[in-house]
Amino acid sequence: RNLLDMDTFSKSDPVVVLFVQGSGSSEWKEFGRTEVIDNTLNPDFVRKFVLDYYFEEKQNLRFDVYNVDSKSCSVLKQDFLGQAFVALGEVIGSQRGRLERPLTGVPGKRCGTILLLAEELSNCRDIVTMQLCANKLDKKDFFGKSDPFLVFYRSNEDGTFTICHKTEVVKNTLNPVWQPFTIPVRALCNGDYDRTVKIDVYDWDRDGSHDFIGEFATSYRELSRAQSQFTVYEVLNPRKKCKKKKYVNSGTVTLLSFSVESEFTFVDYIRGGTQLNFTVAIDFTASNGMPSQPTSLHYASPYQLSAYALALKAVGEIIQDYDSDKLFPAYGFGAKVPPDGKISHQFPLNNNADNPSCAGIEGVLESYLQSLRTVQLYGPTNFAPVINQVAGTAAQVTDGSQYHVLLIITDGVISDMLQTKEAIVTASALPMSIIIVGVGPAEFEAMEELDGDEVRLSSRGRYAERDIVQFVPFRDYVDDSGNQVLSMARLAKDVLAEIPEQLLSYMKTRDIKPRQAGP
């Protein structure tokens, strides 16, 4: 919208070039270009970019806009109109998958805005069940009636057809009723609802030389209307139509029923307005070492973030794209807290008990560093209080509009194992997930038990309803060359990979469907 006008006698001829960045890399690679639209400052581009989406990765995108002036394919020969940087998660996490960003990059000029829309090609997961019957088909057999069957074809981009389904043969009738059958939408129309679906009607012959009765064409969109009404198609034989003046048709086929079953995806819920609420809990026990000492796990040098800060940034910077208010409650545990030096296992890092939320990941980092200067590292390592705190919030809204992710960063052996198991089993029935990142050299066997991948977690005879805990030791992700960006990307990829499935498992067990995004 409102692009710069670079042409003297007409308006600009814009094109958008999309660049993508590899995970943990700073190099930009061209992914594709839109078509060029002549003579407009408000182009609506038709060409779509199809990208693989990974919730657990920070997928950085760059959109460069140019005015095409020369016939050269090189963008360096064209006028630069501005650019926008955005993460794919930001577009998907924005309202209705629609994000507007200002274009920048031309000094002293307003470059206009770029509007991005993301939609998931999730119709690839839909499965259709339909049933058809026919009426007064042409008689093809000398001694009996016809033995009709149907053949379905989907059309390809190049105008050819590919067979995608055959019905069974119904013997000796001109009014067959075929059995209901199921077919993936992907097979029927490749996910394109308006693509032609061609259906041929044949009379079966034992020797394989089946006689052609006629054909008709439709589309997935037209077929889907049968959910509310019968649809009748005329079966036409083009050769007969040419030969006989009084030819009407070779019978009719009626679509009796048509139903679609959807497997909802993570993106369906995010687009329907489900918010991910991110809470952080940081280990302030004495085993971390004095924060002022370089040997401490909390030590932040001027050149390098501590393991705690790295883990927090890695996970938080991805999750924040799915949280509209970007306010994150942040707690510490295992420290003596001023003014009276009491041990606390859920003290707010921002020192505000009424509102423990920090503004953005930077706000959490700031409060964390501030707390290191004001509290006394102590012990023991208790997880249950902060898990119960987040579970209490999650229990207030269970309609699928809110989902909570608690990140616990710790250096060691857990002190309240029985209470923590009990808290997790209770939380497994709520809309929440728990990520535990272990920092430092300790052995973390107890954490593996909490991460119920192998054995479902139980407490006092009660089993967890879902597996909601993901544990990883930070040391497994540290890049040998010291590349922190790569370490963070690897860590986030592993700890966040299970979140979409965990969210879906909660929605499924509660039979919560995604809300429909507005038009």
TrEMBL record:
State the SMART domains in the record. C2 (SM00239), VWA (SM00327)
> In Gene Ontology terms, what is one molecular function of this protein?
metal ion binding
* Segments forming domain VWFA: 277-478
- State the UniProt keywords alphabetically: Calcium, Metal-binding, Repeat
The GO biological-process annotations, alphabetized, read as: cellular response to calcium ion
Supply the Gene3D superfamilies for this chain: C2 domain (2.60.40.150)
Q: Which N-terminal stretch is annotated as signal sequence?
A: none
Domain of life of the native organism: Eukaryota
Supply one GO CC term from the record. Answer: plasma membrane
Q: Does the keyword Repeat apply?
A: yes
Q: Which residues form the C2 domain?
A: 1-103, 110-233
Q: Which family does it belong to?
A: Belongs to the copine family.
Please name the PANTHER family in this protein's record: COPINE, COPINE-9
Q: What is this protein called?
A: CPNE9 protein
Q: What organism does the UniProt record list as the source? A: Jacana jacana
